[in-house]
Amino acid sequence: MSIFTLKQSKPAPKAKTGILGWVIRNLFSSKTNTVLSLLALYLLYVILPPLLDWMIFSADFSAKTNAECTQEAACWSYIGEKMGLFMYGLYPLEAHWRPNLLLTITLLFALVVRFSYLFKDFKYKVILSLFVVYPLIAFFLLYGNDFLGIKIIETNKWGGLMLTIVVASVGIVASFPIGILLALGRQSKMKTIQFLSIAYIELIRGIPLITILFMVAVMLPLFFTEGIEFDKLLRALIGITAFQTAYIAEVIRGGLQAVPKGQHEAADASGLSFTQKMVFIILPQALKISIPNIVGSFIALFKDTTLVLIIGIFDMLAIAGLATSDTDWLGRKTEGLVFVAMVIWVLLYLMSRYSKTLEKRFNTEH
Amino acid sequence: MKTNDIITIKGVNKWYGDFHALNDINLTVKEGEIIVICGPSGSGKSTLIRCVNFLEKFQQGSIVVNNTELKDDVKKIRQVRSEVSMVFQHFNLFPHLSIIDNLTLAPIWVHNKNKQEAKEKALQLLDRVGIRDQAEKYPNQLSGGQQQRVAIARALCASPKIMLFDEPTSALDPEMIAEVLDVMIGLAKEGITMLCVTHEMGFAKKVADRIIFMDEGQIIEENQPEAFFNKPESERLQLFLDQILSK
Q1: Which of A10, B26, B57, B145 could form a disulfide with B176, with the two C-beta atoms 3.0–4.6 Å apart?
Q2: Residue A235 sits in the same domain as residue A129
Q3: What is the span of the domain harbouring residue A288?
């Protein structure tokens, strides 16, 4: 028999904990890792100092005119000067309050939806009515309505970030339900519907967005009798929605196929109708599985909206080019592009973070 | 009292491609009868009970459930399914819904019960299967045995006339089988019509009115439990009983 005395616990060896330990474990654990880490550090050393210098340390934030501004580094007062253009395009200055108000309403609605569990009993009624009311409010505020006494502002005046967001969100919101229907159609046992769904999806996926935009911009008007003006932005929205729908349908189909067969059987066996089965059982699970891909697809769409430039609609990126034509601010294109890149990056990063929280919220597998 | 025929299966044939899965099945089940179906894997026993609520289609023959003939007619199928509940081998609970929502979904949407009524009944049934305290949890937070008991409670929520059990204990760890069987034995004593595909011979002995042995898509032998186990007539059944009882 042996008896062991209780030993005191000892502190861990130094190099393995703390910052130094982390660095050694993660950056210099092997020869390859060391080489790659050093390479990365060198690249950062080459890129970061001049970039920071251009963007911040030598940059000019306060100059009033282009001539006063430094030529060696960024001149951010150019962005300040052109902010209205970047945000709203040629949307009249006196009407800027309209998109601003819409943004406020949007955030308010988002809060209502987020905290809808507080009024559980009529949660779905509230959310549904918001979904019906919101597009109307958005349309009346942005476009205007004679009857309500809101001055009409034609869509050719719209531009900048406002337009980018309008195009992206209409594309996202409209393509989502149609995409679900197409995905279901593709799996339908009714051969005609299945064939039409597959034909549509495969046709659209085989065409670049730019081609579709050209089609709706140039060819679509040919189908209408002369004299009927078909709004250019509306045409772009139709094109983008038609495009996005096919991708969303495929993403959701993946989710539908990942739902186990047993779920269909359990729903069928309990007597639920096809629609009830889809709405209550299959789609919630399929969509949950598809969240990362759906958001990925929306992020791609957000970036693709910059292509509307080619049919003469001025989204934020197009504005960055347009703004350089101001002879007072020649040679400041880089600042504009960097600014646009930063804004879009922030928006997309938020989207991707939001998708993470959604995934967590819907995860019932604790 | 066991007089009314509640299920009548006549000359049912089913093929998967060229494979003859059900070969000329004839079976009549009276109201309140407990039928246990056993047989080697691939013998068509699951397929047979899945034909009763039309989860599987069959090419020939007819099945009449509570005076409704199963045809490829959505209304009739839903009618039958609202009277027949099923418990699956892999539970098939809805993972995105809490236990209580799993139980109340069909009563609310298929049987048009109001929410409060459905919820009360669900809690009652959960109480009966011994897991009322888990009502707000999600399926994946429960053990296999608990999940299967929830599945049984869910099946009962629809106040079915007939319960189908498709190997309800086959996916469970040994120590959890008993808790599920206990619930099933309790049910059997209440006079609900049950069709159980199972290998639990102890359960069959205890509660079955008739035991059916299937092989190669056919009913080979059908008898009362006593005779079924003590005097099996066909060689195939003797062999099968030797195999599973010698374990």
Answers
A1: B145
A2: no
A3: 163-318+326-362
Q: How far is B123 from chain A (nearest CA, A)?
A: 18
Coil, strand or helix at B142: coil
Comparing CB atoms, the residue among A260, A284, A366 nearest residue B96 is: A284
Would the CB atoms of A269 and B109 count as touching at under 8 Å? no
Q: Is the ipTM of this complex over 0.95?
A: no
Which of B66, B96, B104 to substitute to test the interface with A, most A CBs within 10 Å? Answer: B96
Phi and psi at residue B86, to the nearest 5°:
-130, 140
Q: Where are the alpha helices (DSSP H) in B132-173?
A: 144-157
Question: Same structural domain for residues A127 and A171?
Answer: no
Q: Are residues A224 and A339 in the same domain?
A: yes
Rounded to whole angstroms, the Cα distance separating B203 from B220 reads 21
Is residue A61 a part of any domain in this protein? no
Q: Are residues A207 and A298 in the same domain?
A: yes
Which pTM value belongs to this model?
0.83
| Structure-token match 């374990």, residue found | B247
Number of domains observed in the structure of chain A: 2
Give per-residue pLDDT as tens, A129-184.
888 888 888 888 888 888 887 888 888 888 899 999 999 999 998 999 999 999 99
